[in-house]
Design a protein that fits this description.
This protein is α/β, with parallel strands linked by helices. It is about 40% helix and about 15% strand. It has nine helices and eight strands. An eight-stranded parallel sheet has the order 1-2-3-4-5-6-7-8. The protein is globular and about 45 Å long.
């Protein structure tokens, strides 16, 4: 089966625009690039990825465009823009043009914003309208406390394609099923939002496996159905909890348990449709694109 990884990152700390990434985070405070991920993709049978921003910086988004231009396996980029900027519509249009078709969506880092009611600001309306106008998607990086406001925001933009990153980041280690489940169900019922089966291991206790995640994943499939769930690795954040292959195997076990028969949809088709990706080919190379001299 050809796999699409709907959520992965690259970063280089020497760029100095990752506010959350500090030397104290020993495991993640180093460069992670295509040369590190490519062999893992080849081993897993993943032919295509969606490259997600990791810094609140348009410069980082441009950096990701340059990586995508040189690596065919990067099917698209989800970037960042200042949603509160007075000229946000111009900024989004400029990024769309600069990307040469590689920009698939935008992601504000809502989980890191001090104001929990940030999504309710009317000042954000032009940014959301511009995303719809340009056919871009919205990646929602939120915590459970944001789910109700996310629902309200998405109801204002019914034509906007949107996806919930990491299942809304439930507190799996703290047995936070009840505090997350009702708001997730309401969000899924009232909007067209998709959900990423990603980032869950880092919400669980160390060395957690399928058993620890099972009730949470079951609820995700109950809420969204198999047609609105897509798998992502969240690599290299994933490396804090497991290897790429280990998480893929856990996810396969859980999908087979809670949505049997939907493997093609969850591990490829939904991401291709949602992000408007080119259909990946069997054996597609993960090597850099050769540049003409």
């Amino acid at each position: 089966m050809i796999i699409v990884d709907a959520h992965q990152h690259f970063w280089d700390p020497t760029r100095d625009d990752y506010g959350w990434l500090t030397p104290s985070n020993v495991q993640l405070y180093r460069k992670f690039g295509p040369e590190n991920l490519s062999p893992l993709l080849a081993e897993a049978g993943a032919a295509c990825t969606v490259l997600i921003q990791a810094a609140a910086s348009e410069e980082e988004t441009k950096y990701l465009f340059s990586i995508a231009a040189g690596h065919k396996f990067v099917g698209g980029v989800v970037g960042w823009v200042d949603f509160e900027a007075d000229d946000v519509e111009r900024r989004i249009a400029a990024l769309v043009t600069l990307s040469g078709g590689r920009l698939k969506g935008l992601r504000p880092m809502i989980q890191d914003i001090a104001d929990d009611s940030w999504l309710a600001q009317s000042k954000l309306d032009p940014a959301f309208r511009a995303m719809t106008q340009h056919g871009l998607s919205f990646d929602a990086l939120v915590a459970p406390r944001h789910l109700s406001l996310l629902r309200d925001r998405l109801l204002m933009h019914p034509d906007l394609r949107s996806v919930l990153d990491h299942g809304g980041k439930p507190d799996i280690a703290g047995d936070g099923l009840d505090s997350w489940a009702a708001d997730l169900e309401r969000l899924a019922r009232d909007t067209h939002v998709y959900c990423k089966l990603s980032g869950l291991l880092t919400q669980a206790a160390p060395r957690a496996g399928a058993a620890a995640l099972s009730d949470f994943v079951a609820h995700i499939f109950r809420c969204f159905g198999s047609e609105r769930v897509m798998w992502g690795s969240d690599w290299p954040v994933l490396t804090m909890s497991a290897t790429y292959s280990a998480w893929l195997e856990i996810a396969r076990t859980l999908v087979n348990r809670h949505a049997a028969g939907s493997e093609q949809a969850v591990f490829r088709e939904n991401a291709v449709r949602f992000y408007n990706l080119d259909e990946p080919e069997q054996g597609q190379s993960t090597r850099p694109i050769e540049q003409a001299s």
